[in-house]
Amino acid sequence: MTTETLYLEACADAFVKRVESKKLVIGIVGLGYVGLPLARAYIDVSLNVVGYDINEAKLAQLRSGQSGIRHIEDSFVKKSMADGSLQVTSDITDLKQVDAILICVPTPLDIHQQPDLSYVVSTCEALAPVLQKGQIVILESTTYPGTTEEVIKPILESTGMKAGIDFALAYSPEREDPGNKDFHTGNIPKVIGADSPSERKIAEATYSSIVKTVMVSNSKTAEATKLVENIFRWVNIALSNELKVIFEKMGIDVWEVIDAAASKPFGFMPFYPGPGVGGHCIRIDPYYLSWKAKEFGLSTEFIELAGSINIQMPRRVVQMLMEAMNLKLKKAISGSRILLCGIAYKKNVDDMRESPSLELITLLREHGAHVEYYDPFIEEVKPNRDHPELSGMKSIDFTPENLQTFDVALIATGHDGVDYKTLVSHVPLLVDTQNALKEFADEFSDKIVKA
């Protein structure tokens, strides 16, 4: 071990002691669906958090005691802000005081389905001038293998300090599953990768107080692990979507088939079809690997085939809706009133990132339909990059009087707790992409179409 690396090794020993004595201060960049639950996990074990975000509206919301996220109680925010365990800021220099800086910013795709690391790059460019010796920087955002080493490291080293010598650098992918009552930040094992022993020691100490850790040999391996997790789901959802199309022609209910197959206690894991694939990770991760693979002259044919199936699902659903209207209502889609039930990307969450429902609304409008939506979890469509024209749309009041004004209800998200009996009783035609109406299938078979 050289004299240079001895410094970081000494920092690692001191870091572990700060964790043990509950004196570690955590900095979190991005206070959204990943950053705020992460902050809560640290505050729950009596560590202080400094949250940084450039969104002043978000900071004002937190300062007023509102989380803005359904599964994070306002009471937690109020208490944490009051006792000082959570500080929020838009001043990057406030991160000088922290021991660890965890980056939780968006990593979307651009219009060409290629990685957009602009949020990561701008964050690191802002962070570099205030980075302190002995700190650790950890990226949590989904990305392709090599990002930490090839993108983040050069930016942070532009100050003259060196990763692995003056400061530590690591990657640990978020594993949030909003709406899941069984798993949360504190009980989902955390994969961590860093490129030197001292960095791995510091990174592990950063997370070990809040969750079980799974160490891998370097940052690229950790980055690849995150992609594999979600590509696995991407491909299997595509398979279930393709099976649905096939079984539909055969007069077989794909949901009944999958539920029956799931009774096998080994060798099978159920995945269900839908109107498309949403969520920040599953919808995006496969393309990050496909893009990176091209650098090595390789293609990801299996992943891209799954993508072609999943991406076409919204258009297929709209086509089935049009055919059902023609057949059952003797009515064209143009000029019709359609209620989209569920705008969140999955049931029981208030998260609409990459939701196929946004694409469905756009497609229906292109065909001349008047579209409104109902979602008990999302009162208003927030500004979003892919469908800015939908920003400001508001959920209708779910009343019999309102429901009976629609020609069709398209169930895109199968939230629990929705009064589906009232829905099927007052709307002439229901197109169900989630099998949410299965208990009414016999009684209302003439007006329910599975899509």
Compact summary:
It is built from 14 helices and 13 strands. The protein is of the alpha/beta class and 451 residues long.
SSE layout and pairing:
Blueprint: H1 3-20, E1 25-29, H2 35-44, E2 48-52, H3 56-63, H4 74-83, E3 86-89, E4 100-103, H5 118-127, E5 136-139, H6 147-157, E6 168-171, E7 190-194, H7 197-208, E8 213-216, H8 219-250, H9 254-261, H10 285-294, H11 301-329, E9 337-341, H12 356-366, E10 370-374, H13 400-403, E11 408-411, H14 420-426, E12 429-432, E13 448-450
Parallel strand pairs: 1-2, 1-4, 2-3, 4-5, 5-6, 7-8, 9-10, 9-11, 11-12, 12-13
Antiparallel strand pairs: 6-7
Structure notes:
The protein is 40% helix and 12% strand. With 451 residues, the protein is of the alpha/beta class. The protein has two domains: 3-217, Rossmann fold, CATH 3.40.50; 233-450, NAD(P)-binding Rossmann-like Domain (Rossmann fold). The longest helix has 32 residues, at 219-250. The protein is elongated and about 75 Å long. The chain starts with a helix and ends with a strand. The model has no long low-confidence stretch (mean pLDDT 94).
